[in-house]
């Protein structure tokens, strides 16, 4: 069913922090089945930042939750696949093993800092919590380290005794980042961490995350719908649509040698202030209902290049380079090019 | 069509708080011609939403005049204001709190449709609701859904359909696309523009996103801590930004091209308190060009070229 055999393993296994193979996550409801994540494969090397791009319902968050084996079950069912984190399959771990890695090996930052912090504990206590759980240390030591973490995210350590409501939105998100980084995780999953912030504060937070990455060599999956942010901080990009990764590659490949019509559609629909005269060309229509995904390409009904074979042929991943994979049936025709590519060349 | 539909003069809104007077909106003036769009840009807490609400008198302003088609909204009685309200709509920022959780999509949109009275029979009303749902990209099967069953994007579309339902002249769009996905965002922006052309709608478009406002506005007003720091026609503002805050705001926007995000002007710190602000430039504490004059008095808004206003002591034309 998949074509992952073609996927080059590339770097030696020990270089990979994360290796997802053929992951399928469905939510089984009374009458329907939401096909949230369909047969995705994804690799991330140590110290790299992967941008996971897609719209609401594309399966980005389900993927991130699956990496921590946090898919709520029921209704969530992991139908198939393996998720190797540091060489161990997360999906085969016991609850006890999972508790040991969550917050330690892998941690997550959520979109909304207003709701992801606990209002009745001081920020210092919240940062100290995961340190106390994972590292064998006293409460005082944990609080001390919590102060260090606050300084790392550029908040004075004296403020550790304050409560979340005493911080601004940008600072709350920095606290959330401090919590996530408290045990120096190998992999950080950031789910739209700057979406709720103002642009100037977003710029500060992104700047900080980049310098933290350099300091701590943390690998990151940065979930976002903002291609501008991807261009700014990511090394690699995976674009999701209707639960599939439809294009992946290095930043340069996906941005400068875009292959998939959906990726092109995304670029055309975002306002670009450096090219203000450009008309916005929205992608017509809506994402298909995830309970009724078509047999062929899920993007076909919205695709300007759609051919008859796209409707009923399941998309196969085609590699354009060792790293650049695209799921688009139209490339069965060797002469096929999308418009963006013609303009660029 | 060049008569101003809306004229706002010296609008102020102060909130009394335990720690003093919070200057949410401090002396804002602008005029807006019919069929045009004014973009109000600024970050959380700069008073842009409060300005929008004061214009519609959803919040009672502290001082100022709001002339809508020549009549001062602030002196109208409740009954008169109610009649005028059909001409003025608002699309809210937060699709979670702006919809009645007990009403279905049908009921929510139909309420506005019935107010205008153009559609009378239940069948006509339903057809109109479906038409509006299609306009904003809501699938027909959702007509009997409740807000809690829908995601943020879909809820926001209900809000837009609801505003369009009364066929208003002026719509205050308060961050209407912030909650939507990019491909949908472009659809809605283009839709709002088409509607404007077709129906001669006038917009006040409130957003924190300068890239978005560029596509819809004729004129842009940049607000910081309740005041206008710069106001200019859209092209002029993007080509010749003058105020240091406008410049850093422009440079903070991530550009979707490899290697394009260089030379960013990172502003330090955070917005200072809007409570009893001292008589000085409100951006002074974060500004790299701050001098003694900046903390000596609050800079007035001056016209530096036709239609281009800026409030900065350090600008000399």
Q: What does this protein structure show overall?
A:
The complex is a heterodimer of chains A (345) and B (317). Chain A is α/β, with parallel strands linked by helices and 345 residues long. Chain A has one domain: P-loop containing nucleotide triphosphate hydrolases (Rossmann fold), CATH 3.40.50.300. Chain A is 32% helix and 22% strand. In chain A, strands 6-7-8-3-9-10-12-11 form an eight-stranded mixed sheet, sandwiched between helices. In chain A, helix 4 runs parallel beside helix 6 and helix 5 packs across helix 6 (169-181). Chain B has 317 residues and is α/β, with parallel strands linked by helices. Chain B has a single domain (4-253, 265-310), classed as 3-Layer(aba) Sandwich (Rossmann fold), CATH 3.40.50. Helices cover 31% and strands 24% of the residues of chain B. Chain B is built from ten helices and twelve strands. Chain B has helices spanning 48-55, 78-84, 105-116, 122-135, 152-165, 182-199, 210-214, 234-239, 244-251, 292-296; strands at residues 4-17, 20-33, 37-41, 63-68, 71-72, 88-91, 170-174, 202-207, 219-224, 227-233, 302-305, 308-310. In chain B, a hairpin with a 2-residue loop joins strand 11 and strand 12 (308-310). The mean pLDDT of chain B is 88. Classes of the chains: A alpha/beta (345), B alpha/beta (317).
Question: Keywords for this structure?
Answer:
heterodimer, A: 345 residues, alpha/beta, Rossmann fold, 8-stranded mixed beta sheet, 4-stranded antiparallel beta sheet, 12 helices, 12 strands, 32% helix, 22% strand, globular, disordered N terminus, B: 317 residues, 31% helix
